[in-house]
Amino acid sequence: MSSPNLDKNPDRSKREKRVKRISIVNSFVCRVEPRISTFSLVLTAAIFVFAFPVARAQQSSDTPPASNAQNGKKLFVADGCYECHGREGQGATQTGAPRIGPPQLSFDGFQSYVRKPMNQMPPYTGKAIPDQDLADIYAFLKSIPMPPKGKDIPLLNK
Ligand code: HEC
């Protein structure tokens, strides 16, 4: 039995409507929710499946495929890199080629630059220098130490 007192309350019908609306929304959410959780499960799985190889690829970009720095040193001369970049990859003002020993780029960046340079440098296709040779060249360049800073040269600190 409804009490006439409450029925007369002007707020009551508003409140009832609100409650009804909320329960409609609730039942909708309840129907949709199983689908949402399946979806988020699939999404989480997808993130795991796709993110891990990416993370691995990013890690490996600094360590090129099994490489041989000794062979890379020979290739650096044989393939003509030294003509512009200098024998130790130190760069040369005459050619405008920057220091690339040691390389500041990741192996991926290095590889894509050599394949498609932006300015003066000529491009080297995979036929001219196979990926493996490029990995060896990269390993050679990585083995070159950075030049010491002035303050680290004993002669200059006398
Ligand atoms: C004809 C001259 C020339 C030769 C040969 C040459 N380079 Fe270059 N390289 C350049 C110049 C000049 C640049 C500066 C950017 C530009 O103009 O493309 C450069 C830039 C680069 C860069 C980008 C450096 C950076 O930190 O942005 C890499 C990496 C590189 N060279 C690698 C090589 C390798 C490896 C070889 C041999 C396979 C080679 N280059 C042969 C002239 C040369």
If you had to describe this structure to a student in words, what would you say it looks like?
This protein is an all-alpha fold and 158 residues long. It has 2 domains: 51 residues; 79 residues, Cytochrome Bc1 Complex, Chain D, domain 2, CATH 1.10.760.10. Helices cover 58% and strands 0% of the residues. The protein has 6 helices and no strands. 15% of the residues are buried. About 4% of the residues have low confidence. The site of heme C (HEC) has 26 residues, from helix 4 and helix 5.
Summarize the structure.
The chain has 158 residues and is mostly helical. Helix content is 58%, strand content 0%. The site of heme C (HEC) has 26 residues, from helix 4 and helix 5.
Can you lay out the helices and strands and say which pair or pack?
Blueprint: H1 4-8, H2 10-60, H3 69-78, H4 81-85, H5 107-115, H6 131-142
Helix pairs in contact: 3-6
Bound molecules: heme C.
Heme C (HEC) binds near residues 80, 84, 117, 120 and 124.
Tally of strands: 0
Unreliably modeled segments: 55-60
Q: Main sheet?
A: none
Binned strand content: under 5%
In CATH's first tier, which class of the largest domain applies?
Mainly Alpha
Percent of residues in helices comes to 55-70%
Descriptive terms for the model:
mainly alpha, 2 domains, 6 helices, 58% helix, binds heme C
